[in-house]
User: Which sequence fits this backbone?
């Protein structure tokens, strides 16, 4: 292959690796100025029959489609081209300059807890995007993860693993062609349901958990012990790790997929609450290797600081970071770590100073702005905290954690309407984001905005707000009405009747309360009282088509067909295109016609 030009433009320069059915090469694009490098992946199946060839083509097309749809993410290589040549399939992708995570893990016996948290968050951030596109990667492992040289971020590669391949088999007893499922993945990182050919999103979460285990223990997955009774991995006694992180990893790698975090988002949310490395929008802190430092001594101070940080010996860690900063004062990551350590000591004012040094060196570092905002929030410097979160949002408009935390600060500042708007935005970005949902609910309850609580289907909170308003003013008809509507939505009909009854007692001309009362009485199968309620509506609003229609429906149920017909007639006269009433009217006419034919006089 070396020296060969494929696709008329990509000249193969070097073999990068491969296995199974594919090989990967470094190539140069001969059609672009400077002949920029790229990666060529060759899928070369062992074709023995036409069916095998078609299966390989489907594999190839699927991987190309996935790469094309996911290529907008900055931590997934872009797809430049895909084509077939001489019954061989080629993908041309962006070259990622960096080091395979497998090499990084081999180079160190184990990584510190902050490094492992950062690593898993970085992988899960990309995986969250992948899952949102309804794609399961199915082959997450250190050799499919690259630590990008320019920014130390983790890039996810190789989307060639397919969860099932339909392989033609002999016809079954019914004369129908069946299929068998072939599991694809890598031993040690592949959970049991994936081995059985039934991967799920949580299968990817398992793989990330195993990568995290390998990083923190320095042990390959195949060498980790298992409980023979449960199949669970036994590892906690091999390394010093906080119970909080250990619990999260254990849940990620549960033998039973139902007991795991179900998606990357769920795992990220759990990691986010880990102090002190709670990272907004689940981004990571990259801990640089010796190459990024000015001297070997400098690296020793940083590594010692990381070890002390992991052991929660924070004051000693700060002393080490200070030594490192003296040697390399422009390394913003040292200042960032120093800020995290000061936060752990609850020395938030000093932490802000460290984050300020980061921002001075890297004004666009949204993570430093986020941590600065959190520290200011804890210092109750709310106006400055809002400014910090606003900066995060300017840099990352879709960071739902920043919107949420901004809402919390605004709520603490009693700027409730702005807080609701921030929580609203967080929920728009992530509809199942419970912290923002609960925060918004709480603020709306404080504001007694019953209509918004009701519209958001927070019925219990709407009822509580109504009852608070009623305690303040027992003669508030709107509070009674909204209480009744919320109770009705929760199917607490007797309570709803009592609330609507109180409304019409306070205001006998409230047609909406009479209408709602009629609806609930109908639910409770009290037709005579329901008709009386609809009659009150019609006395107040003679042209209310829905009151005429619903009155007709109750009368129809009472077998008073002529009266029901009259109600439907009236609704149709008021709105000639009212199809529901027209259909009901025709139904009554047909029923009455049949009754006359059978010699039965309809009831009035």
Assistant:
């Amino acid at each position: 292959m070396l020296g060969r030009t494929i696709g008329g433009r990509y000249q193969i320069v070097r073999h990068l690796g491969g296995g199974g059915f594919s090989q990967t090469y470094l190539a140069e694009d001969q059609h672009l100025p400077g002949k920029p490098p790229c990666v060529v992946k060759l899928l070369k199946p062992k074709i023995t029959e036409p069916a095998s060839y078609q299966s390989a083509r489907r594999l190839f097309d699927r991987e190309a489609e996935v790469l094309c749809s996911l290529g907008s993410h900055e931590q997934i290589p872009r797809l430049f081209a895909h084509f077939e040549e001489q019954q061989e399939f080629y993908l041309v992708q962006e070259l990622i300059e960096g080091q395979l995570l497998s090499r990084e893990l081999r180079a160190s016996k184990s990584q510190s807890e902050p490094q492992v948290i950062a690593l898993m968050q970085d992988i899960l951030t990309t995986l969250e995007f992948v899952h949102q596109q309804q794609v399961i990667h199915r082959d997450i492992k250190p050799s499919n993860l690259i630590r990008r040289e320019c920014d130390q971020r983790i890039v996810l590669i190789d989307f060639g693993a397919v969860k099932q391949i339909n392989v033609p088999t002999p016809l079954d007893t019914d004369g129908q062609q069946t299929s068998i499922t072939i599991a694809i993945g890598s031993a040690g990182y592949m959970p049991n349901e994936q081995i059985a050919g039934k991967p799920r999103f949580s299968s990817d979460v398992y793989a990330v958990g195993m990568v995290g285990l390998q990083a923190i223990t320095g042990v390959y997955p195949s060498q980790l012990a298992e409980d023979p009774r449960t199949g669970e991995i036994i590892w906690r006694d091999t390394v010093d790790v906080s119970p909080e992180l250990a619990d999260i990893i254990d849940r990620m790698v549960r033998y039973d997929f139902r007991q795991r975090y179900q998606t990357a988002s769920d795992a990220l949310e759990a990691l986010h609450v880990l102090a002190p490395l709670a990272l907004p929008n689940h981004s990571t802190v990259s801990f640089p290797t010796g190459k990024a430092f000015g001297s070997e001594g400098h690296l020793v101070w940083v590594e010692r600081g990381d070890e002390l940080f992991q052991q929660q010996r924070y004051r000693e860690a700060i002393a080490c970071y200070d030594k490192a900063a003296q040697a390399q004062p422009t390394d913003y990551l040292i200042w960032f770590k120093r800020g995290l350590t000061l936060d752990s000591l609850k020395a938030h004012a000093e932490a802000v100073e460290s984050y300020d040094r980061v921002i001075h060196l890297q004004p666009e570092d949204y993570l430093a702005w986020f941590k600065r905002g959190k520290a200011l929030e804890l210092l109750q410097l709310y106006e400055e905290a809002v400014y910090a979160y606003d900066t995060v949002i300017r840099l990352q408009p879709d960071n739902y954690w920043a919107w949420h935390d901004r809402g919390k600060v605004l709520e603490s500042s009693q700027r409730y309407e702005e807080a609701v708007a921030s929580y609203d935005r967080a929920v728009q970005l992530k509809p199942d984001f419970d912290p923002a949902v609960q925060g918004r609910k709480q603020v709306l309850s404080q504001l007694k905005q019953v209509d918004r609580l009701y519209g958001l289907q927070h019925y219990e909170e709407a009822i509580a707000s109504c009852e608070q308003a009623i305690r303040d003013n027992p003669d508030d008809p709107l509070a009674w009405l909204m209480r009744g509507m919320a109770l009705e939505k929760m199917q607490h009909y007797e309570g709803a009747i009592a609330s609507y009854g109180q409304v019409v007692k306070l205001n006998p001309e409230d047609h909406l309360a009479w209408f709602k009362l009629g609806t609930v009485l109908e639910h409770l199968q009290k037709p005579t009282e329901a008709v009386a309620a609809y009659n009150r509506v019609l006395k107040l609003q003679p042209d209310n088509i829905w009151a005429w229609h619903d009155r007709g429906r109750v009368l129809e149920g009472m077998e008073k067909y002529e009266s029901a017909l009259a109600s439907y007639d009236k609704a149709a006269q008021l709105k000639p295109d009212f199809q529901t009433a027209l259909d009901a009217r025709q139904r009554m006419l047909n029923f009455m016609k049949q009754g006359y034919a059978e010699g039965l006089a309809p009831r009035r």
